[in-house]
Design a protein that fits this description.
Elements (H helix, E strand, L loop, with lengths): L1 H20 L16 E10 L5 E3 L3 H17 L5 E3 L7 E6 L8 E5 L3 E6 L2 H14 L16 E9 L5 E7 L7 H13 L4 E5 L1 E2 L2 E2 L8 H4 L3 E2 L21 E2 L4 H13 L3 E8 L4 H6 L29 H17 L4 E5 L6 H5 L1 H9 L5 H18 L3 E5 L12 E4 L4 H8 L4 E3 L2 H4 L3 E2 L10 E4 L2 H6 L9 H4 L2 E8 L7 H8 L2 H10 L7 H18 L11 E7 L4 E7 L7 E5 L9 E2 L4 E3 L3 E9 L2 E11 L8 E4 L30 E4 L3 E22 L10 E7 L6 E7 L9 E22 L11 E9 L1
Parallel strand pairs: 2-3, 2-4, 4-6, 8-9, 8-21, 9-14, 14-15, 15-16, 16-17, 17-18, 18-21, 19-20
Antiparallel strand pairs: 1-7, 5-6, 5-7, 10-11, 12-13, 22-23, 23-26, 24-25, 24-27, 27-28, 29-31, 30-35, 31-34, 31-35, 32-33, 32-34
């Protein structure tokens, strides 16, 4: 009897222990990005342990299985083995199903086994990636995690991508990234089920691919004069005799290694060899490629307009490009060669005797048709090598090459037009697919291109435009993100701009449109953030940021501040004054009213704790608020703020398009504030912005004068400063303090730099004149 009782107790304890160990999974626990096409959750779990086997049928499957097994080796301390014969239970098996589509897979998980069914290699890879995301985030750890339960739910996933082209472009010309970063990026693309890596290997600022027939392309064209301390568009022109030291290039063997590794991850690498523009690096190497054999240096920064382009009239130009293509295709087995084709300024073609002869001989009507001739000729040659051409949407100008695919970047118009003509299209409109744009408030973000593509806008993207006919939509291959590298100085900066926006893009390109839901995506995103953390990935936390928009009611000397966040129904809380953001913070429900100088702090809360960076702003009510301003030099109509910009307490941001700035081009700012009665004053603060890449510079002088009659003024303070190099946008208050005195009128003069060192006209931006 005692023995029976003992067995009952042991059985009961075993049952309790088993129940405790096995997590019950629900739909909210399935946090896969991109969201699978169809998921059915079943009862029970499969638990990985040291005895789990991967059953593989070929070397590719074995290598893919080992990639996941290696993660267990680090995080769990044991590594599942691979075998060719399935055991009775506790295994993951690859099963070929020729009836599935190329990238589709079925993942069937039961307590005893996991079966991944796919037609070929990429399907198996994607099935493994889904298993990886079903596992605890700790599978990404670089160290052993003893507390993790390596369980995934019993379920069936039936999944396939919506679009066949799911890409990322890396600009390697404006900043050169080494092989290791490219290989790491390939891993991260695979994790998000992306399948194209587009390498921008050629541009004005650097030639990044070894061409053995033309060694000067990398001896000269791969290096530029180091002006990295200057803002991109403020960098000075260089001459042909100045030696470049900043840059780099890939050997052909390195590129072959990249291509080979990408293939193991289901990723096709597409090379871009720009033509006929964005080729200063080539012309600096071989001046005879230009219309007038002009000798130039490799530009260190921004170039506009792009007049140094290949000569379309010389046969030697086409001989050069054909020889380059011959070497490129021995490195890249891709179906496509991208030839650029954008932003060519054809003023030299209009004057060049070689080009004019070509126009005459080919019976062309214009330089636009000459560009079309150029593209069509190169397409014909590339087609003869068994490849297809991709070009930016400018290749539509003058007539599209017969078999070309258009990559539409200037919005979607070019893509629509190309699809209407029966051409394949890849949609990559600047908004929202340019990942070099800001993704959060400029004041809180690293330097980027002066435009805005936040995470939620990327998630809204759809490559198929609603106005397209079904036939036109059938020509849309998919979409792509582009990361131009003017403001990217290294791998960590690149990671920051790509992630997590790539996660959003991956779902827009993979998941069925009807399955996409921003609220649902954001809940799954937090799991992805944990994976990024384990990987040491420098992803942007911009989506956590609280942003504010303010409106001034100057009649009542009152300001209202509205707080927002990207996430749906955000839990925003705030405090006033010197209090800390903690559990005592007030939940934000409606705009906050201010009538006196106050410090505002706010944060997004999650699980009753603040997350992300704390938003802080000081609303300053000063003596000039709501008083009349007379402009003695008118501001530029492109940046005119509103009638009370200078005295409304609302400060401008580093985004000079935010409506809070008034600006003067070349002219000095000179204005008068009328208090309508005498006020006791002792300080004037002039709020300014510098963004040298955009031609915006701090004043070189600020003067304050006061008067009681508005006619006779006396100077009470002055600041002068020399021009100084500033590579990043900066906000600065120029403060002039003076002996306290009574005055009705305050005149403020801010001296414009007039001309930048580059010789361009200078802007002066001012957002507020604070008087105390």
């Amino acid at each position: 009897m005692r023995i029976i009782k003992s067995y009952l107790i042991i059985g009961f304890l075993a049952l309790v222990t088993s129940s405790y160990a096995q997590k019950v999974f629900t739909e909210k626990d399935i946090r896969i990005i991109p969201k699978p096409t169809q998921t059915l959750i079943k009862t029970g779990v499969f638990e990985f342990n040291k005895d789990t086997k991967f059953v593989t049928g070929n070397d590719f499957q074995k290598d893919a299985a080992n990639a996941l097994a290696s993660k267990f080796a680090i995080a769990a301390g044991w590594k599942p083995e691979t075998t060719t014969k399935a055991p009775a239970s506790n295994f993951v098996q690859f099963k070929t199903d020729p009836n599935l589509k190329n990238e589709a897979y079925i993942l069937d998980v039961n307590p005893n086994s996991i079966v991944i069914s796919a037609k070929g290699n990429t399907g198996f890879l994607y099935g493994l990636e889904s298993i990886r995301q079903l596992l605890p985030e700790a599978i990404e750890s670089q160290y052993a995690v003893t507390s993790a339960k390596w369980q995934i739910p019993s379920l069936t996933i039936n999944d396939e991508p919506r679009f066949k082209w799911r890409g990322l472009m890396l600009d390697l010309s404006r900043h050169f990234f080494d092989k290791n970063y490219i290989l790491t990026t390939i891993d991260r693309l695979a994790m998000h089920k992306m399948n194209v890596l587009h390498l921008h290997l050629v541009d004005d600022q650097g030639w990044r691919i070894e061409i053995k027939k033309y060694p000067k392309l990398t001896e000269v064209g791969a290096w530029r004069v180091d002006q990295e301390n200057l803002s991109w568009n403020a960098r000075l022109a260089v001459s042909a005799d100045q030696k470049g030291t900043y840059g780099g290039f890939f050997t052909q063997d390195e590129l072959r290694e990249i291509v080979k590794y990408a293939a193991t991850k289901g990723i096709e690498v597409i090379p871009e060899i720009e033509m006929p523009a964005h080729v200063s690096s080539a012309i600096a190497s071989y001046p005879e490629l230009a219309c007038f054999d002009q000798k130039i240096g490799v530009p260190s920064g921004g170039v506009w307009p792009l007049t140094d382009i290949y000569c379309a009239g010389k046969e030697t130009t086409f001989e050069f490009l054909q020889n380059v293509i011959d070497e490129v295709i021995t490195i890249f087995p891709s179906k496509y060669i991208h030839i650029g084709g954008d932003e060519a300024t054809k003023t030299n073609w209009a004057k060049c005797p070689h080009c004019q002869k070509r126009i005459k001989d080919e019976h062309l009507k214009s330089v636009d048709e000459l560009q079309s001739y150029f593209v069509k000729r190169m397409e014909k040659y590339i087609n003869s090598k068994g490849k297809k051409v991709i070009g930016w949407d400018e290749i539509l100008e003058g007539g599209l090459a017969p078999d070309a695919t258009v990559m539409s970047w200037r919005g979607t118009k070019g893509g629509i037009e190309a699809a209407d003509q029966g051409h394949d299209v890849i949609m990559t409109p600047e908004t929202p697919c340019y990942f070099n744009f800001y993704q959060g408030p400029q004041n809180e973000e690293p330097l980027a291109f002066d435009a805005y593509n936040p995470l939620n806008e990327v998630y809204k993207f759809d490559p198929v435009v609603p106005t397209m006919t079904p036939q036109e939509a059938g020509h849309v291959l998919g979409g792509q993100a582009n990361l131009w590298a003017e403001h990217i100085s290294g791998p960590k900066d690149s990671e920051y701009m790509i992630f997590p926006r790539l996660a959003a893009l991956s779902e827009t390109l993979w998941s069925p449109k009807e399955k996409r839901n921003w609220n649902d995506f954001t809940t799954r995103l937090f799991s992805m953030f944990k994976r990024y953390d384990y990987q040491g990935l420098n992803y942007a936390k911009s989506a956590y940021l609280v942003t504010a928009s303010s409106t001034a009611d100057l009649a009542n000397k009152q300001v209202k501040v509205e707080l927002k966040n990207e996430f749906p129904n955000p839990d925003i809380r705030y405090v006033l004054g010197d209090k800390n953001i903690d559990h005592h913070a007030v939940k934000y429900t409606s705009p906050i009213e201010f009538k006196e100088t106050t410090v505002l702090k706010a944060s997004l809360f999650q699980d009753e704790k603040p997350v992300g960076k704390t938003f802080t702003d000081t609303i300053i009510f000063h003596k000039a608020v709501a008083h009349k301003v007379k402009y003695l030099t008118p501001f530029n109509q492109s940046y005119k703020g509103d009638a009370n910009t200078m005295v409304n307490t609302i400060r401008g941001s580093k985004n000079f398009h935010d409506g809070q700035w008034q600006a003067w081009l070349v002219n000095d700012m000179e204005l008068v504030i009328d208090f309508e009665k005498q006020e006791s004053i002792e300080q004037v603060i002039v709020g300014t912005l510098e963004s040298q890449g955009a031609g915006v510079n701090f004043p070189i002088e600020v003067k304050v004068l006061v008067s009681n009659d508005g006619i006779k003024y006396k100077q009470v303070g002055k600041i002068t400063r020399p021009y100084a190099v500033n590579a990043v946008p900066e906000l600065k208050d120029f403060k002039i303090s003076f002996q306290k005195q009574n005055a009705r009128f305050v005149k403020v003069i801010a001296g414009n730099l007039k001309k930048s060192p580059k010789g361009e006209s200078s802007w002066l931006f001012v957002d507020e004149i604070l008087v105390n």
